[in-house]
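Inputs:
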Amino acid sequence: MSVLHDLIFDYTLRNVALGAMLLGIVSGVLGAFAVLRRQGLLGDSLSHAALPGICIAFMLTGSRETIVLLIGAGIAGWLGTLLLLRTVRDTKLSEDTMLGVVLSVFFGVGILLLTLIQQGNDANQAGLDKYLFGQAASLIADDVISFVVIGALGLIVVIALYKEFKVISFDPAFAFSIGLPTRLLDIILTSLLVVAVMIGLQTVGVVLMAAMVIGPGAAARQWTDRLHVMLILSALFGAIAGVSGAVISVQAARIPTGPMIVLSLTAIVLVSLFLAPRHGLLPDQIRRRRQQTRLRDRGFDAVAEVRS
Amino acid sequence: MTSGVVILLTGVLCAAACALLGTFLILRREAMMTDAISHAILPGLVAGYWIASGPNLLTGVVGATGAALLTVALVEALQRTRRIEGGEAMGIVFPAMFALGTVIVSRSFSNAHLDTDAILYGNIEFSSFERFAIAGHDLGPSSLWLMSVLLVVNVTFLFLFYKELKLTTFDPGLAATIGLSPVLIHYGLMFVLSMTTVGAFTAVGAILVVALVIVPAATAYLLTDDLFEMIVGSAMIGALSAVSGYWLAIWWDASVSGGIVTMTGVFFGLALLFSPTEGLVARARRTRVNRQRFAVDMLLMHLSTHELTPDAPSESSIGHISAALHWTPGETAGTIRRAVDRNLASRTNGTVVLTNQGRDAVRTLLDR
């Protein structure tokens, strides 16, 4: 029971676990939409695109406050999203090319600015690079409160526009035909990923954000065909991965939190992929075998042959 | 050679080697595979480090190439289950590999010289200090050797399989019909990409690799539709970015990798805005011209409908045209001016009438 005790009373573990759990919930819900709309890798691009925002926010304000830097990150990520949506719509460049362009160029500019800041010999500059690899252990109570506020804003938008998001995720053409402002909704839903990225940067870092966006949704998709169930499962999986990763990394020596969260999440994805009753590979195989036997029993050998 | 020349040459060679492959990756919509590979090689590098019990170029490259190919295979396997689609499969595999590598590094090699910072943004700055030596003879900076070999390998690959690459990229169905295996070519390309990523990555860092593979090729694609021009163009844009990015970094005393990537972005931005065919400026102008042409056509149709009817004088008054076609007075004035300029209509005290040329134009419109 000492783990449970620590979770509640140990200051560091409590903040890390809470932060990771919030990240899991928010990126789980928003990522589920991204997965359905096949935009999962957008999380990867946005998190990289956030870096120059962090640097510019720091250069302009000289502040190291999490919330200031995260707002900078959010704005840069959002500009990256708009650039991506616009170019994919208006030029012959494909989405996957633009994901790569936004990711690498924004990040490269960020690195350039980061090295500029570092030679400034500013005592304040230390700590910006924790956003690169994530440093969950450095989370303090104020950070967690910022996460709650940012995350709640994102989730409220999802709840308020749930029906609209559902339609544009599954049938954008129908959404357009019934007069919904599809382009605006598309931009809102895509931009919400920025919220997940803002929470994720400090917890898991730039590189691993892709997993936090895609993993929970991809796992939840195997268990259900209903959107609201999928969103709840996705949030749950994200939260479980967050908390278990945080606990394992604090209990065992020298295991970084971010990577451990991602490894937990990968385990959840694999279990879902193989074992989920609805779409899992193993249950699917069993059903197929059973059907073959049934057909063979009835003498439909040829059909069974074709089906196998 | 001074260290500046070595850095410049390394950058240019790397840019050229990456851009050659980038062209095909973009056309095949596999660009993000570079990003996945460049991160997923971490556990392979760690394995190479462990086998040689220290930093070693050969075991590092072998381990990383192995990890890269494993990544490609895992992504394909996930996609084949059809439970997890396209890009999402990458987004599951490469963070998992990167996380695994990070955990192993901090568990087992926490004191070792395996710097995760360097993995992300590289240290091309030190490229002249790592020497390549055989039996004690110093043969020059190893990064130069590595990048030259990679460039030769890539050029050879393109030269040998140009036809096959071209056909499987643009018409995989036809390629399969005449007996070229798209799968084999895909794996060939992925193998060469893995080697390039690993090699370039040890010299210049992960982000620079991704940028040099994707961005110059995307820039060239905005400027041309010809495959050969695109390959040559992207290599040239890549090399140009390497040179100008190096000077930018020296001038600002900042990261050379960051400078080079920034310059690839600058060139991309210029092409995105000003490309004669695809550029946003040209596109906006085309849209405006089309809209104006269409407005003139609408005006002619309107005038022709009411011509020779009793209400013609009132229908062809400028104020009424505004209201009937839902145009602002400015739009109406502009459209009438353009119609008059083209001799399709003429203006007489407050009303507009068709000219003979205008009637001909209406007839052509109706025949269409």
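Chain A is about 80% helix and 0% strand. Flag for discussion at group meeting.
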